[in-house]
Amino acid sequence: MRFLHTADWHIGKKLQGYDLLKEQQYALAEILTIAKKENVDAIVIAGDLYDRSVPAVEAIKLYNDLMIEWNLKEKFPIFAISGNHDSSIRLSAGSDWFSHTNYFLQTRFEDAFEPIEFKETQFFLLPYFEPISARLYFEDDGIRTVQQAMERVISKMQEAFDPEKKQVLISHFFVAGSTKSDSETKIEVGGLDAVPGELLAPFDYVALGHLHHQGALRQENARYSGSPIKFSLSEINQKKGVWIVDLAEGLSLDFQEITPLYDIEEVTASFKELLDPEFYQAIHTENYLQIYLKDRAIIPNMMNQLRKIYPRILGIERVNGRNETKIKRKKIEMKDPKKLAENFFTEMVEEQLTDRQEQWLEETLQELIETE
Amino acid sequence: MRFLHTADWHIGKKLQGYDLLKEQQYALAEILTIAKKENVDAIVIAGDLYDRSVPAVEAIKLYNDLMIEWNLKEKFPIFAISGNHDSSIRLSAGSDWFSHTNYFLQTRFEDAFEPIEFKETQFFLLPYFEPISARLYFEDDGIRTVQQAMERVISKMQEAFDPEKKQVLISHFFVAGSTKSDSETKIEVGGLDAVPGELLAPFDYVALGHLHHQGALRQENARYSGSPIKFSLSEINQKKGVWIVDLAEGLSLDFQEITPLYDIEEVTASFKELLDPEFYQAIHTENYLQIYLKDRAIIPNMMNQLRKIYPRILGIERVNGRNETKIKRKKIEMKDPKKLAENFFTEMVEEQLTDRQEQWLEETLQELIETE
């Protein structure tokens, strides 16, 4: 079994207001080229196909056209799941017909325990889910966290393991200790949403989606593929691409890079330099540019003049402020809502939370996430 | 060839704020029962499957579940088109897989000229379209109205006619001279959207969608099926159901009624009578009720008291007003935007429109409709 692992397409996503559809179309076409060149048996998409639960028609058309080409024309089997950005019901419409041509689009938690057997491999397709789904499915009120849920899920999956076969899990969640990027959904509740990597040990490979950096996790049998293109300035130095996973002899992993249609780049220069053909002909003016301006004076109509040369400016910052101090780039910090609430409580009532209060807070935050 | 003809499901539509999903589910289940009892070869759905271009997930789930049952489980071939309420792109996602099991969901104008041949019949599936689509397709700027478009469309379809076969057109538009109901979209541009019935002569049968009353048109070879349930008080006396169309020997048409889960009813009574068990036990209190109240005095907390007995009140009107005059039911009139604009112009500039101005107005209104 040799397959391609991708995830986090987020079709329809914008970058600082710029429509990324063309870039996404380009990168996804590259993925098909890689699949053909690498002669894979199947393509795995580990969730977040769309960026929003109600995608725009252009996004729907792009995804539908891709699947027509990949599955109906090129005959690639597809194993896909919904991520936290997808609406599972909207995405699932039609999926009962898709499976007739080996296009498996799994969006329902309760269907995750029946593996799809393909060649010598069992694929378990586990869509993104909230603990409430596991709580109801296992009829166990004790399941409050994703970790607790995953323990039950994997143990149930193991009942269906065929010792003659390899097992692959396709899933969409946060593995404890992974590194996050700026473009992922920023909500985290005191680790309640994290799954310890050890739990994934029973599988020959775990194809993960959720984090946008392919290097976010380095576990022997588990990888994030990352997104096919960069979604934020913080990803400027990340390599984007797909994993070619081969299970023929043990596990062999090969990361295939995708060259973006327009890359993200940082440029430090004076306004005069930026307008100088000698300067801008030496750089990719079509790229998404974060500009660090060396000037101190006010420049009238600056943005309009720059946009004529650089059509995709992400932002402009002055490196030399009026007070001669370098303006620091604002660091977007991951805020833990539990800590925020605790601090607020302590400041207001000048007391620490009791254990019971802390438990209430945790449960309330968890419920908030689940109903989001 | 014997098929069932239905249309204008408008899944997700509300009636005075009441969710009709349960009623729709009930009526659509009745349609399957009729299809089985009548032993039809196929089911035709002539557009407006959903009420909105972005349907709610509950509506999407209902429609998807229905098609799984009708097509995948019961194996009925389905011939469906998009109507003016449907988003053709959203609806079309997945349709390339559906056709593998004889579920044809046609949403693109340019695909309408290739008939689907089934048994001894050619089905032409023409989705709802605006004249601009025909203008572009035929590369003819002279096509400004639906009538002009339909002349070209039908003439092109005739090129594909097989004289050995019967021809059925499935379409969604307004046939000139048909009777409208209150629940249809209220926009009409000086007859520009009407197709003369004579144009439809080449077909053995035309399965129409758009108007919600099955009796809206009585043409030998063409019928509206009407909606499966009532969508407005004005439809109170309309029979709802589906046509069973048989082309074995000439054309035979049989209208099969659907009994609604909750009907629309008018009740005239005093408040005292309405609260009297003897009165309300004799009527279907679960129905959608338009109440005509005989009282003159102010009744505090009236609605809350009535809702406890009658859960689906559409409206309450007093038949005896304070001035002893009977309050007339407000008649919703079809306003012709062209006439409105002409009147406004005449009032403002105290001149009549010139021919040229009138043409501009007509074209502008047409474009407005097309871009809606």
Automatic annotation (TrEMBL), chains A, B:
Domain of life: Bacteria
Gene Ontology MF: a single term: endonuclease activity
Protein keywords: DNA recombination, DNA replication, Endonuclease, Exonuclease, Hydrolase, Nuclease
Domain Calcineurin-like phosphoesterase: 1-213
Gene3D superfamilies: 3.60.21.10
GO BP term, example: DNA recombination
Pfam families in the record: Metallophos, SbcD_C
SUPFAM superfamilies for this protein: Metallo-dependent phosphatases
Alphabetized InterPro entries for the sequence: Calcineurin-like_PHP, DNA_Repair-Maintenance_Comp, Metallo-depent_PP-like, Mre11_N, SbcD, SbcD_C
Record domain Nuclease SbcCD subunit D C-terminal: where: 263-348
Homology family: Belongs to the SbcD family.
Subunit note: Heterodimer of SbcC and SbcD.
Function summary: SbcCD cleaves DNA hairpin structures. These structures can inhibit DNA replication and are intermediates in certain DNA recombination reactions. The complex acts as a 3'->5' double strand exonuclease that can open hairpins. It also has a 5' single-strand endonuclease activity.
Protein name from the UniProt record: Nuclease SbcCD subunit D
